[in-house]
Design goal:
- It is a single chain.
- With 63 residues, the chain is mainly alpha-helical.
- The protein is built from 3 helices and no strands.
- The protein is elongated.
- Helix 1 crosses helix 3.
Length: 63
């Protein structure tokens, strides 16, 4: 059940226009960072935040 919920959340994010718009804006902004190592750290941290929010949503749905 947990894996199915996480899958559904991730699939919904792929279809959500607001989420995709904001993600694209973030990536466009990050692309302008000249320092490659810093750029990778910024993108990596954003992905960790996104995963943490996905897991939080999943947790809240199963209360």
């Amino acid at each position: 059940m947990k894996n199915k919920t996480l899958y559904l959340i991730r699939e919904q994010k792929k279809k959500d226009e607001k989420y995709l718009f904001e993600l694209q804006k973030f990536l466009d902004t990050a692309e302008n960072i000249k320092d490659e190592e810093f750029k990778k750290r910024i993108i990596s941290q954003m992905l960790k935040c996104d995963e943490a929010l996905t897991l939080l949503i999943e947790k809240l749905l199963h209360k």
